[in-house]
């Protein structure tokens, strides 16, 4: 079965198993307490009803009023500060629910607002996260140089460690601040920060809900907003470092398959025309928006019969293909067990660098790995050094589907 | 300024403006209603306090009890079905909050559960979404072929349109179902589906909260879970199609910059080093002249920018294959072809040398 399908199926099974296991554990942890608490509250309710001589109907009425007043207890929620807070919870998808639009107009606007805001925010956090990672990498490199270390390259392990430590510190700083300002225990404040920064946002703990803080304490309000946005950036940077590559794995594989097919069909017809089929590899991160249609323009360039020169080219091409094939065979080994975690998170630094190469398309240089001995560079031995290396430049300008002739 | 920096700064500015505009609009839409409603409710409260002759403390006590009883009104939340529902809201980051772990150990487990579950779910949805997009593209092409259209390629616009229609379709199906089962209006049910499938999850509307639904109406429970997961897949597929490329834009640009610098340097260095590449190098690194040039350039760029680091761990294999190919073309060196392992060792040796080490050629 195709690798992508195996991967997807395994992920689905994994997720379902994970859900089942989680449900069982939560059941075991919480069910008992829920039962005892329910009984306690119910008993207390009965007590109160007896004390104040309330009928069920009366109590229901009271209950309704109390519940409806609940969001108002925390202060005015929709003045500018509160609305800003709400807007943050919408576009970051935290969604506490401490305030939710009650008017229909508010609901409609909320949906439209989210429709545009959520992708904008996703892209923004990833963009900023990538910049931060780049900066951190640079700083670490300089630090290593200053410390006079022999190996000053920044490895993936370094970056992951730093990212992880930043996340933990962000959570701890938040926990300290909120436990102080909101009067929560450190653990509850930490739990709040965690639930907020992972954008789960239960709403069981919500900041800025005490003592009308939204209206009366602008400094604390500003701190909260900045904390949430900065914290999300730090988490976003870590996700950009660790998780984003997996999200594009299937697309990369599809592209590689498509190029392989193209390569094979091109080599199969010696010098014949190579028709670019419509390969469903649209969701690729670096492709132009034209998708399938755009590839066909290159067919004329590729395999026009050029006689001896072409044959020579093919021979050299296959010679240089050896390393590529070897890379690919290694890759196949790695992929023989459908893995969710690729080897470039393994311990060896060397492997790390090359693992990054393996995980993306070896025939596609824009995906940063070295197997550039693809169909771009068939050429003669002597001139090859110059032309071969020169010919590296064209494809950096273009989408990978370009097939440059000699 | 570098393209990536401009892009990032513009995005930050965009987001802040978007937040400000949103806050202003929500203020305008909701503030009045809020204060009006609050006035009414407070009046009612005073009325009731008078009616039942509650003191302030009495009322506070009743309020406390009512608020505590509220989550239990919806039935048992932590039996297996309820826990499964909760687990879904955690790993998909929906997080309604209709049920939240009360015990400390529940909170701890919740955090660990989320740490592993959220990335797993993100990757799973993107993976499945990509598969769906591929399949839809294939189907669409076949349809176009069957319909005898001249151009059977599937364009991006086609895919986006189909994706958008699927999302709307999913929302409408959910709205119809939930408005029926939960007795909400169609609009409220649509709003619920939207807030759920965008993983915002306010919790103002939550399915399966009618008394004992979780325990009794098993087919409806199963439907709800499936709907949430399938709906998230459809949305995920659309995001994979439209948004994912933007998430990797900065990274791609960094890579491209590094390669540009590399090729520029190579062009310069090549003219003086062209003879050397055909000579058998003394050490495996000697053949890496062009690679080194590029690498050195990347690392010791006279430019004050922080570009150099980007070459550090991205393109070492790039270098490897260039050097490898140089070796293989050199007439006296045949090791390259027969020992692919040398590439790996080349890379290994290469890695041992600091990025900025100047190798004389």
TrEMBL record, chain A:
Transmembrane parts of this sequence: 6-29, 80-99, 111-133, 154-177, 189-208, 220-247
UniProt subcellular location: Membrane
Ranges for domain Potassium channel: 76-132, 168-243
Keyword rRNA-binding: no
Keywords: Ion channel, Ion transport, Membrane, Potassium, Potassium channel, Potassium transport, Transmembrane, Transmembrane helix, Transport
Gene Ontology MF terms: open rectifier potassium channel activity; outward rectifier potassium channel activity; potassium ion leak channel activity
Record-level GO BP terms: stabilization of membrane potential
Chief localisation class: membrane
Region (Disordered): 268-293
Membrane topology: Multi-pass membrane protein
GO cellular component: plasma membrane
PANTHER family, alphabetized: POTASSIUM CHANNEL SUBFAMILY K MEMBER 3, POTASSIUM CHANNEL, SUBFAMILY K
Family to which the UniProt record says this protein belongs: Belongs to the two pore domain potassium channel (TC 1.A.1.8) family.
Protein name: Potassium channel subfamily K member
Gene: KCNK3
Automatic annotation (TrEMBL), chain B:
Protein's membrane topology: Multi-pass membrane protein
UniProt entry tagged with the keyword tRNA-binding: no
Domain Potassium channel: 76-132, 167-243
Sorted UniProt keywords: Ion channel, Ion transport, Membrane, Potassium, Potassium channel, Potassium transport, Transmembrane, Transmembrane helix, Transport
GO cellular component: plasma membrane
GO molecular-function term, one example from the UniProt record: potassium ion leak channel activity
Subcellular location: Membrane
PANTHER family per UniProt: POTASSIUM CHANNEL SUBFAMILY K MEMBER 15, POTASSIUM CHANNEL, SUBFAMILY K
Protein name according to UniProt: Potassium channel subfamily K member
Organism listed in the record: Oncorhynchus kisutch (Coho salmon)
Gene: kcnk15
């Amino acid at each position: 079965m195709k690798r992508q399908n195996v991967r997807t199926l395994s992920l689905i099974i994994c997720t379902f198993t994970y859900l089942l296991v989680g449900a069982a554990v939560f059941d075991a942890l919480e069910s008992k307490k829920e039962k005892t608490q329910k009984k306690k509250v119910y008993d207390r309710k009965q007590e109160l009803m007896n004390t104040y001589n309330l009928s069920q109907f009366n109590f229901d009425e009271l209950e309704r009023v109390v519940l409806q007043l609940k969001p108002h207890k925390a202060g005015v929620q929709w003045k500018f500060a509160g609305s800003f807070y709400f807007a943050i919870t919408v576009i970051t998808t935290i969604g506490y629910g401490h305030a939710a639009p009650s008017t229909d107009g508010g609901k409609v606007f909320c949906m439209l607002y989210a429709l545009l805001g959520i992708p904008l925010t996703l892209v923004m956090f990833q963009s900023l996260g990538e910049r931060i990672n780049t900066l951190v990498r640079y700083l670490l490199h300089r630090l290593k140089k200053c410390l006079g270390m022999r190996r000053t390259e920044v490895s993936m392990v370094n970056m992951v460690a730093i990212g992880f430590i930043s996340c933990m510190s962000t959570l701890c700083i938040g926990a300290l601040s909120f436990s102080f300002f909101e009067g929560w225990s450190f653990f509850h404040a930490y739990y709040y920060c965690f639930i907020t920064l992972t954008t789960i946002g239960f709403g069981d703990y919500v900041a800025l809900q005490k003592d009308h803080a939204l209206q009366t304490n602008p400094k604390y309000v500003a701190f909260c907003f900045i904390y949430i946005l900065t914290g999300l950036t730090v988490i976003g940077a870590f996700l950009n470092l660790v998780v984003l590559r997996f999200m594009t794995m299937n697309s990369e594989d599809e592209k590689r398959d498509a190029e392989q097919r193209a390569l094979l069909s091109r080599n199969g017809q010696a010098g014949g025309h190579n028709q670019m089929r419509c390969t469903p590899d649209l969701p690729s991160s670096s492709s132009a928006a034209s998708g399938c249609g755009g590839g066909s323009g290159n067919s004329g360039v590729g395999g026009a019969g050029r006689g001896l020169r072409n044959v020579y080219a093919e021979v050299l091409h296959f010679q240089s293909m050896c390393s590529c094939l070897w890379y690919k065979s290694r890759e196949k080994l790695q992929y023989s067990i459908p893995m969710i975690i690729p080897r470039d998170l393994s311990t060896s630094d060397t492997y790390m660098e090359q693992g990054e190469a393996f995980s993306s398309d070896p025939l596609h240089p824009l995906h940063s790995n070295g197997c550039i001995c693809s169909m771009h560079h068939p050429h003669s031995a002597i001139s090859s050094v110059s032309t071969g290396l020169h010919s590296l430049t064209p494809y950096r300008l273009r989408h990978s589907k370009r097939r440059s002739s000699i | 300024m570098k393209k990536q920096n401009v892009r990032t700064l513009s995005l930050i500015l965009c987001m802040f403006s978007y937040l400000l505009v949103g806050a202003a609009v929500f203020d305008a839409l909701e503030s009045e209603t809020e204060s009006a409603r609050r006035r009414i409710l407070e009046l009612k409260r005073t009325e009731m306090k008078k009616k039942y002759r509650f003191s302030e403390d009495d009322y506070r006590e009743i309020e406390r009890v009512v608020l505590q009883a509220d989550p239990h009104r919806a039935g048992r939340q932590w039996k297996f079905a309820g826990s499964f529902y909760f687990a879904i809201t955690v790993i998909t980051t929906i997080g309604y909050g209709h049920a939240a772990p009360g015990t400390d150990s529940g909170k701890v487990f919740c955090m660990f559960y989320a740490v592993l579950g959220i990335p797993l779910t993100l990757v799973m949805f993107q993976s499945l979404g990509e598969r769906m997009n591929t399949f839809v593209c294939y189907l669409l092409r076949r349809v176009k072929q069957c319909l005898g259209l001249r151009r059977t390629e599937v364009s991006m616009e086609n895919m986006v349109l189909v994706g958008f229609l699927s999302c709307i379709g999913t929302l409408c199906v959910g709205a119809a179902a939930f408005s029926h089962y939960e007795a909400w209006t169609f609009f409220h049910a649509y709003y619920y589906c939207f807030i759920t499938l965008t993983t915002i999850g306010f919790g103002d509307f939550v399915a399966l909260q009618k008394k004992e639904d979780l325990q009794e109406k098993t087919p409806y429970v199963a439907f709800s879970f499936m709907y949430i997961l399938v709906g998230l897949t459809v949305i995920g597929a659309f995001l994979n199609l439209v948004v994912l490329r933007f998430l990797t834009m900065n990274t791609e640009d960094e890579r491209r910059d590094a390669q540009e610098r590399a090729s520029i340097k190579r062009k310069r260095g090549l003219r003086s080093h062209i003879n050397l590449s055909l000579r058998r190098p003394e050490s495996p690194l000697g053949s890496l002249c062009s690679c080194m040039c590029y690498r050195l350039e990347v690392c010791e760029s006279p430019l004050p920018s922080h570009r150099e680091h980007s070459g550090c761990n991205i393109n070492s294999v790039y270098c490897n294959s260039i050097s490898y190919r140089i070796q293989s073309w050199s007439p006296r060196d045949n090791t390259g072809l027969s020992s692919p392992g040398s590439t790996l060792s080349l890379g290994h040796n290469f890695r041992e040398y600091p990025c900025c080490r100047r190798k004389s050629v």
